[in-house]
Amino acid sequence: MAELTLFDIENVDNDQFELSCHQNGIRYWLASELANMLGYTEYKTFLKSINKAMTVCTSLNMQIISHFIPLANNDFKLTRFACFLITMNADIKKEKVAKAQIYFASLADAISELMQAEQIERIEIREELTNKNKSLAATANMAGVENYALFNNAGYMGMYNMSFNDLKKVKGIEGTTKSPLDFMGKRELAANLFRISETEAKIKSDHIYGQKNLENTAKEVGKKVRNIMIDNDGVRPEMLARQVALSDVKKNIKKVEKDYNKIDNNKKK
User: Fold this and answer.
1) Which one of 27, 39, 44, 156 counts the least CB within 10 Å of its CB?
2) Which residue segment(s) compose the domain that 212 sits in?
3) Whose CA is closest to 21, among 37, 39, 42?
4) In terms of domains, do 73 and 34 share one?
5) pTM score
6) With the C-alpha atoms ordered 60, 61, 63, 64, is the resulting torsion angle positive or negative?
7) Rounded to the nearest 5°, which phi and psi values hold at 90?
């Protein structure tokens, strides 16, 4: 396949992306071709961006099959919206990816500062956290946890040097059912994902059992993650800036899907 040159030119208002689409009842783009367009030489590496985009789709309660239609050899038929999600989860260090992000932003009225790649990555990491929390809860239950709230709180005490409820105060959501995780930036979310993963790993590897022992382990691991973050740049985890609510980011992404659907519906006329 000849190398496609989408996004090679400086002018982002070009038609090359549109010309690369296929028509068969619907307008679609091939993932293998999009990988080439974005400067990927290894399709296996590109698949990581596809998987992350699918995770975002799931978090938005959208059917993956509506935007990612599987083909042979791990290829996919992609909607415009799927191409957007993949590009926003692709390697920003690649010049073609950076230009593609600008191009997709020029197509949708709903694109705003909430649609930065880091904001969309927050959704993917938050979804991972939800799944990993479930896994940790199951592991802790098997290890004899009696009060999961206290066990969970111990992890936050270790990492933030404050309780879960005090952290909610810091994030400005005291007295609500909202989670502090939904107001954390990419780095803070990733740190919590690491904390939870390592807590579960330690419980399993050290065969830790019993409520108090589990709490001590959660706090110990949390403190280690805290120290790593402070050693890296001197910033305490609780001082990391509150981000816009993930619910607002998700609303905007859904608006982007509607904008892209309008584009393709108009092109059918």
Assistant:
1) 44
2) 117-248
3) 37
4) yes
5) 0.84
6) positive
7) -85, 180
